[in-house]
Amino acid sequence: FVIKWPMAQVGDELLDYLASLPDNLVQELMESGRQHRCWYVYPPLLHEVDVDIRMDDLYKICPNLREENAYTGIMRLLERKQRASWTMRRLFAPAWDGPVHTWD
After folding, report:
1. What is the pLDDT along the chain (104 residues), one digit of tens a residue?
2. Residue 44 burial (CB count, 10 A)
3. Contacts of 66 (CB under 8 A, 6+ apart)
4. Of residues 4, 71, 77, the one with CA closest to residue 40
5. Cα dihedral sign, 49-53-59-60
6. For residues 56 and 36, what is the distance between their CA atoms, to the nearest angstrom?
7. pTM of the prediction?
8. Dihedral angle sign, alpha carbons of residues 83, 85, 89, 92
């Protein structure tokens, strides 16, 4: 659902390119964008905002906003990249004569 296009050429060239695409392809791109659009929303801090989701326009477009939003997506990606090493929770610093603390 993404068309890579140089920012410097956005204008008539892009419109001409889009007009040259078959209608069914444009429809597929638009539908794919609709399916994934909520992942691009940076909502307000959901735990700090008390809204009636039945009345909020954003929840009409993204009914699963609490689970499908940009913050959640970023956290999921970061969780996958979490360093899994025995040294992960240890602090390495120059030796000194004071007390030694470890975080195990």
Report:
1. 678 889 988 999 999 999 999 999 999 999 999 999 999 898 876 556 666 767 778 888 888 888 899 999 999 988 887 666 665 566 666 666 666 666 65
2. 9
3. 46
4. 71
5. negative
6. 19
7. 0.57
8. negative
